[in-house]
């Protein structure tokens, strides 16, 4: 799910938009524009060249260096899982007083169980989580804005400045562009649907819909944070949404915990399975047999253990530093080739019906989840 991880908690919104005060809307707009642009290029290349799995597309763009995307995606996945574990620990500790280590153990165990029972259970986790979280965003935003509407109006009427006095409009815009680049990791899960596209209009509307389905929850969360701006209790919180909802009754916090907990779990499951799929695909590329079920289990356990270690850094630093580094990596490895060679291929290239090098069945076995909260919605879309 694209809307997962720190996105579901509100931490990404604070880091990449709300900290710029009333200029933060520029960040949200920039995120939508760059995400929709990247999406259109990916979808149109996929449609024209019949590349319905991400590896075929990446090979088309950067040739023999395609493995760099897999490596970067694996590192980013571990970082996102670390955010999920840290966020889940904070939520359970703040709401129910459960020790973070116990939450980590429960999350790892549940991920293992879901992976063991396979694809159908994972699909139910993702689809149910998507619906519930979307409804949750609408309810939570309406609740906050209905009670804090006057504060929101006052914030914008007073043209509230950014937290950093040196920040400019371009600072906010560039932050949104960087954040949008992070979502380059969600396209492996979205590309298979382009097998049904018949024209560039299908690519355009698919990209537009993907963009606004991510941008609207981002904008609603931004408005909710701005209703509390510049409260340090919200802006410096690991889980801004939890802080904003803390005075609205126990039932609201409980519902929030359930929805976000479900989202974090679904995202973690998808990320781990996606990492295993990438490892197996690269083993096949070098002539090795894919991992056995036992080896898969060991690899999944190692991935989760590394993520638990990384989670000790904390949600705030992981989002501010880990996500930003991942976004720059995605921009360099995938975004720039997409904006250069990708555009040239669309304008000048000759489509080839047999361009795809692998069956999409392999990629469609398990949807990836990210993100950016980064993670979780083409996965959410």
From TrEMBL:
Swiss-Prot/TrEMBL keywords: Membrane, Transmembrane, Transmembrane helix
PANTHER family given in the database record: CONSERVED MEMBRANE PROTEIN, MEMBRANE PROTEIN
Region Disordered, annotated ranges: 352-381
Protein name: Membrane protein YkvI
Keyword hit for Nucleus: no
Biased composition (Polar residues): 352-368
TM regions (residue ranges): 23-43, 64-92, 98-117, 129-147, 167-186, 207-229, 249-276, 297-320, 326-347
Keyword GTP-binding listed: no
InterPro entries to which the protein is assigned, alphabetical: YkvI-like (IPR038728)
């Amino acid at each position: 799910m694209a809307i997962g991880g720190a996105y579901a908690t509100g931490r990404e919104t604070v880091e990449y938009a709300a900290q710029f005060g009333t200029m933060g809307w520029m960040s949200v707009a920039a995120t939508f524009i760059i995400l929709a642009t990247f999406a259109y290029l990916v979808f149109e290349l996929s449609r024209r060249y019949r590349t319905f799995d991400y590896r075929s597309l990446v090979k088309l763009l950067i040739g023999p260096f395609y493995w760099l995307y897999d490596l970067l995606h694996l590192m980013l996945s571990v970082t996102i899982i670390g955010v999920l574990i840290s966020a889940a620990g904070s939520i359970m500790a703040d709401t129910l007083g459960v020790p973070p280590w116990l939450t980590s153990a429960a999350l790892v165990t549940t991920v293992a169980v879901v992976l063991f029972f396979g694809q159908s259970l994972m699909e139910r986790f993702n689809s149910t989580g998507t619906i519930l979280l979307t409804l949750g965003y609408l309810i939570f935003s309406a609740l906050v804005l209905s009670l804090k509407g006057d504060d929101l109006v006052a914030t914008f009427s007073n043209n509230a400045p950014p937290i950093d006095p040196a920040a400019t409009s371009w600072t906010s815009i560039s932050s949104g562009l960087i954040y949008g680049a992070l979502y380059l990791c969600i396209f492996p899960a979205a590309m298979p649907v382009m097998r049904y596209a018949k024209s560039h209009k299908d690519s355009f509307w698919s990209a537009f819909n993907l963009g606004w389905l991510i941008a609207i929850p981002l904008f609603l969360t931004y408005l909710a944070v701005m209703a509390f701006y510049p409260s340090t209790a919200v802006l410096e919180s690991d889980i801004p949404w939890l802080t904003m909802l803390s005075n609205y009754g126990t039932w609201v916090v409980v519902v929030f915990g359930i929805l976000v907990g479900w989202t974090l779990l679904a995202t973690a499951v998808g990320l781990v399975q996606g990492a295993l799929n990438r490892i197996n695909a690269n083993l096949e590329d070098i002539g090795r047999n894919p991992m056995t079920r036992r080896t898969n289990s060991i690899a999944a356990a190692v991935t989760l253990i590394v993520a638990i270690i990384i989670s000790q850094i904390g949600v705030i630093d992981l989002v501010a530093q880990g996500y930003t580094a991942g976004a720059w990596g995605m921009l360099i490895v995938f975004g720039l080739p997409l904006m250069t060679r990708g555009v040239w291929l669309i304008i000048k290239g000759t489509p080839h019906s047999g361009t795809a090098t692998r069956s999409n069945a392999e990629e469609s076995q398990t949807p990836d989840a990210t993100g950016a909260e980064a993670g979780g919605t083409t996965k959410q879309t």
